[in-house]
Amino acid sequence: MGIRVAVVGASGYAGGELLRLIAGHPHLELAVATGFAQAGATIGSVHPHVRSFRDVVLAKTEAAAVGDADLVFLALPHGESAAIAAQLPETMKVVDLGADFRLRDPAAWSKYYPGAHAGTWTYGLPELPGQRDRIASATRVASTGCYAVTVVLALAPLIAAGVADPDDVVVVAASGTSGAGRSAKQHLLASEVMGSLSPYKVGAHQHVPEIKQASGARTLSMTPVLAPMPRGILATVTAKPLADADPRAVLQEAYSGEPFVQVLPEGQWPHTASTFGSNAAHLQATTDVDSGRIVVVSAIDNLGKGAAAQAVQNANLMLGLPETAGLAVDGIAP
Amino acid sequence: MGIRVAVVGASGYAGGELLRLIAGHPHLELAVATGFAQAGATIGSVHPHVRSFRDVVLAKTEAAAVGDADLVFLALPHGESAAIAAQLPETMKVVDLGADFRLRDPAAWSKYYPGAHAGTWTYGLPELPGQRDRIASATRVASTGCYAVTVVLALAPLIAAGVADPDDVVVVAASGTSGAGRSAKQHLLASEVMGSLSPYKVGAHQHVPEIKQASGARTLSMTPVLAPMPRGILATVTAKPLADADPRAVLQEAYSGEPFVQVLPEGQWPHTASTFGSNAAHLQATTDVDSGRIVVVSAIDNLGKGAAAQAVQNANLMLGLPETAGLAVDGIAP
Amino acid sequence: MGIRVAVVGASGYAGGELLRLIAGHPHLELAVATGFAQAGATIGSVHPHVRSFRDVVLAKTEAAAVGDADLVFLALPHGESAAIAAQLPETMKVVDLGADFRLRDPAAWSKYYPGAHAGTWTYGLPELPGQRDRIASATRVASTGCYAVTVVLALAPLIAAGVADPDDVVVVAASGTSGAGRSAKQHLLASEVMGSLSPYKVGAHQHVPEIKQASGARTLSMTPVLAPMPRGILATVTAKPLADADPRAVLQEAYSGEPFVQVLPEGQWPHTASTFGSNAAHLQATTDVDSGRIVVVSAIDNLGKGAAAQAVQNANLMLGLPETAGLAVDGIAP
Amino acid sequence: MGIRVAVVGASGYAGGELLRLIAGHPHLELAVATGFAQAGATIGSVHPHVRSFRDVVLAKTEAAAVGDADLVFLALPHGESAAIAAQLPETMKVVDLGADFRLRDPAAWSKYYPGAHAGTWTYGLPELPGQRDRIASATRVASTGCYAVTVVLALAPLIAAGVADPDDVVVVAASGTSGAGRSAKQHLLASEVMGSLSPYKVGAHQHVPEIKQASGARTLSMTPVLAPMPRGILATVTAKPLADADPRAVLQEAYSGEPFVQVLPEGQWPHTASTFGSNAAHLQATTDVDSGRIVVVSAIDNLGKGAAAQAVQNANLMLGLPETAGLAVDGIAP
């Protein structure tokens, strides 16, 4: 019999991806899935692609619904995890996909989010030095934000190695639309998005403090762009060099043993499509001939390494399972 | 140690999908992958998403390359399988993804294809009555065409039950671009395809005889349309009713035990996205209020149930493995 | 000084396209544009692409707003035109883009629409025999539906010529998302639409009676499909032949003098992209080799010939202007 | 009778857009259009959307073909304009859409392009200070590159005003696929592009010297990204501030009288779709709260202000026509 997991907030895109991953996971079993407006509906009607659970009915989103699950995934809108989490037994393992518990600095929280800072959980990015062990022994883990993981993987080893200047980092990152959620909003309609690129929250994006905290960057200009595709994030991360080092070699060394983070062969640049449906992150780096800046490009699936698959990776660690169980390293293309 | 399989013609889209499925298959192991123009290149450079085999080098496409593999997948352009197949030991199991060995009638072959008719292998659609056993005991299987499987699944049970008139079937089926292959052609450029729908081979499509042979249709108007998406086929199949029966009920009964073919709940219509990356086929049917015609809509992933995943399903049967091994019933959406 | 026109219901997609066409029209001048929820907003904020009217503020949608405009375009949701129209002076020229006044048969209206049948106005498809003159002398014109114009142009001449059987017409037509309007609905989100084809209203579409009325078809199976593109309709129209005639020649003769309806050279099939942004309709026809059915494919821009440009064509006729004034025959591609 | 213009290299995407614009231009008339591989084909077969010239046959690309045209547009692959231009009468007005004559510095040319530097023509960006008059009196004009115009419009006024530091400019710019041309290449196939973002020429893009020359930037990191849409460029341009000034106000003053370059109202950010099919450039600027960097986002249609429409704007000036003749300020959306 499998380990029983609950998905709280299963009606959104990250929730749907969690359900799909749990259905294909060799060790996990779905205890319960909950929804808010969709409580009472079958998973087959809410997520027509998840046929494995087609007759499972969504319970109402509340702490009691999770029962005695071994682990709970919280896939709620930002700001709504804390209330539920507070009602769960302290010994119950929880992976939060929201932003509530990622930041250490309450001031950083207040600058970008409404409401009080809920607290700080173990940060769920196993590829950071020492973090894998911390996650494995934690009961509460705050999984990374989708933009954050894309940028942090590209940047953290270069700053740690003293190769990239943490004081002048410039990031432009484009995301597919699933990153903006499943609520019906006019600017997310297919008619508005297809054939168009549109920046948003320019000059003040709420992922900046998380990126700085996890990467070591001290000042960061981050411009997010909505791209006409359902999934995928491509981040272009540039920084001034502090030392005469090959940025690609630094990344390659940092991730040499990692199953999911891959530095591509020289000259091969990441495409978001290559990571579709997987937990993979693809990286490449070079030095710009005109400016001398380090340029790193990083690609992930925002619902994969950027949300649900990342959360399962953390859960695997917390549950003592093989870290790669139920997760794909190969993307689905074309 | 796994069962060793060869992929002959691994550089195209169906070949890439075969590689991905083999990498995730619990019982199969890649013996060799071959290419023509790409021989000598790594799989990592040809299919950047298939990181599991990133350092495997493509051998040259020729019969000798397959060595003593337990099973060979031929994923070659139409008309090129026969020459290779003729050189393989008769006892070697082969699944052909091309059209060469699908048709029983040489005249039908000659009407749509150049070159001589190569012969007839066991037709690789396990969901047809009696076909599962024939495939399990065959050494040579001709896997279905992508349009054919979409239409045949929708139509065959209705004709077999005497519910749909085989003499006036009208099909319009739209396919994503991967169905047109990976050769660089101007009309397949992203600039030409995005934002556009375009019919092709109107009035005379080469899949018509295969559909008729496998579905029992006697006359068939089939119009294919190229759609602005990478994967997926949606077929709208209409026929005159011969009896006062609920077409949905007929399909539901026909596929009640099938793991991959699913008749959706009443009122829920198939979306191609729900089958993305899987071996699933989704069906729905109704009777048109104005004309009284039966209307069935069928959706698959053309590289999944329409090509590579279907071929793996056939291979599973031929090898005595669980039919669903290594194959997803859940699509990946959004 | 130009002819002064009002756009009632300017905040939707058809309204935005009307504004764009009016801005570029050599004889028309915008008197007023109205909105419902958006009343008070500038056109620049509602339609960022229509920079010509960027500082014009939307008035509230009500009859009084149109003042003494020479002509009024009603671009309201289906069922909302009648109430406004009843309050406008009888001599005021009105072009309705909605469905309210298209049908002659109240029973057909009641079968597909809620509310009472509002009445019947001159049908706004100038390319139908005799219709151009009727429109030119009308004060009230009901412009065509987007699916209807696509199908009727393909079908009417063949039925009129006794070449196509009106009793067994099968249509599958796919539309871009702008045809579904600008209201924020989950199934129209970019995440849901991109990469997917999805049928809807299968078996009972409300455009069927309009198509039958205008084309002469007696029974019609019409399946609409939502396609992952912002604009464009591609209709595949098939019918049994009644006579041994070349369907393409019939269409070519019917439209030989038409500026906007074009039968393509033999072998060249319509692409929706070729009509983007224009008032053009592209047609091609053949006879299916297997079934003998006539197959006509028709492509338009659903906001062009399917809505706003068609309405301007009607307005040009009603106002005694050159029929082609302010309208493009060339699409914008790629 | 109109002014007679020739389009040399009419079979590509920029050539097709030129033809469309000429067809709708009130003062220009097409003298001849030429092609290389497509010589002898009709425009209707090469550009199905340009129905106005459907029966015009492409002449062979050679200097003699232009005859006594009043103005010649060269829309040839980079490096091929010089040979043709050298054979045209010195008094013949020529607008080159290629890169051959844009750069003043031969060393910059040699760093990024093969072959010898052909020379320097008047740079065709009328919105630069003083440039409008130079273009009006020139017989030879080198129209801007598509990335260059997007970035230069965003950057030049800020550097000229001493507000942006020219020594640390970082640009990430994403382009639709038509910018990569119409040659059949595998990486430009719809299957490869849809659903994916992919960077290219990272660290060394050939537009860098043109951008530096025209904007005043001294060091520039420019990363181009291919986006899944047919048209449009969105550039995110960041620079360190040199003075405490509002970057938006600087841009607004610089472009206050310009018909095509528009600084959007505060808080409204450019979308590429809003410029589709037009000669418009949309700009917005802010100061990043975390880093203090100036962030300007700029959007154009790469075939509009980035190529063909820009070339027509230059031609209008050279021919003494109204600068806006035949050009749209309104984009086509959705």
TrEMBL record, chains A, B, C, D:
Cross-referenced CDD domains: AGPR_1_actinobacAGPR_like (cd24148), AGPR_1_C (cd23934)
Subcellular localization, as worded in the UniProt entry: Cytoplasm
Domain Semialdehyde dehydrogenase NAD-binding intervals: 4-136
Keywords: Amino-acid biosynthesis, Arginine biosynthesis, Cytoplasm, NADP, Oxidoreductase
Pathway named in the protein's UniProt entry: Amino-acid biosynthesis; L-arginine biosynthesis; N(2)-acetyl-L-ornithine from L-glutamate: step 3/4
Annotated signal sequence range: none
Key word Cytoplasm present: yes
EC id: 1.2.1.38
Family assignment from sequence similarity: Belongs to the NAGSA dehydrogenase family. Type 1 subfamily.
Record's protein name: N-acetyl-gamma-glutamyl-phosphate reductase
Organism: Dactylosporangium roseum
